[in-house]
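Z., the sequence and structure:
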Amino acid sequence: MDDLTFKKQKLDPKSASFCGAKWYNATIWLGSGQTTSCHHPLPHAINLEEIKTNPSAIHNTKEKKEHRRQMQSGQRPAGCEYCWKIEDIGRDAISDRVYKSKIYSDMALDEAYSSHYKTDFNLKTLEIAFDRTCNFACSYCNPAFSTTWANDIKYKGPYKNLTTDGRNHFTHAHNSAEPYKKDETNPYVEAFYKWWETDLHKSLDELRITGGEPMMSPNLWRLLDWFETQKDKINPNMRLAINSNLGAKSEIIEKFKSKLKHVDNFHLYTSMEATNEQAEYIRDGLDYSQWFVEVVNMMLDRVPAQIHNMCTINALCLESLPEFLEMIVKQKESACKHYEIPFNFTLNILRFPSFQSVLVLPDDLRNMFKQNLEKFLRQFGSLLEEMETNQVQRLVDYLDVVKTPHKDAASVEKLRKDFKIFYSQYDKRRGKNFEKTFPIIGEWYRGL
């Protein structure tokens, strides 16, 4: 069933806002005790008292239950604005609530829709971050998700004069994201393991581990040890997915591969959206050549069953995104033909920080990049999966129609001012050169 038919036949008859992710999917930051239903709504705090008696409350929070009630009655939860903005484009645009629901059975979706909204549900897909330890400090990330970013702020001070960054991403080290020291017991982590050992390892179709960089977290290795000793207890169809920037030392990556070599359904998720020096500018700490080699080595060693590349679509990546996607297409063919490993991509449109959104760019540049993506679709569309084609087309439509990153975004003039202020400081702090690295956008940037 194609995506649009699924939406019209399986979701819309329930309600115009129903999404299975509110019941069965979660992202949980165990380091700081926060959760959300997918990567679009802002995270909210987990109740520390609740998890003492109900470890599943790291997912089944009061806020999510209220959102379930709204969806059952056809109301649009405000935190899910990303999907509403996509759907309101028209053109039968497919929002992520379709992808997030399509992975579940009709029976599971029916049970979620007909249940009392306060009912606790075991997850089917879970993304967890044990902590924020990370060796990269990507430009659109922030100290809440990267210790390298936190150290940048600690030692070089806050970014100054940014007026549109309502969440103050770049003004402090976000110590609240790491409330427990390395030698202290983290109650959110322990609640996860309690739920995991009783019910969660039976119900999950996918467990995805992210960070920070998971290879740098002791809890990744703790969980992989559990997999080795308790493998027979796990849902045999469960996918173990791990997000990695593949920038760790070679001996750590070799240890990682040896631990996962015999996990039957391991999926590797990695992230890139540009090429060469542009990629290294966006993802500070990256060695683009090393990343490419590690992806190929994962295929050669046949470690993952599948490899997924997640593109974070920000203003800077649009110069070389079509070139990067062409490279992915060529690797897809090679991966499937020689290594029998599926390789695909997703395009995740950045909304925060708003001044790094693609919508900051002027109309002429947006139109140029839109045309480049349309040309890519004409050349390589036949080699893409349906979801990949839809995601590229969605970005084309987004560049063409949408005017603001989100409903509370500042005016485009203020966002562009912060764009220049941020990257001017970023260059000085990181030893980079915006105008040299991005010759097309750089010409416009020079005039800001």
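The chain has two domains: 3-126, 132-177+205-446. The first strand starts at residue 25 and ends at 29.

Let me know what you think.
H.
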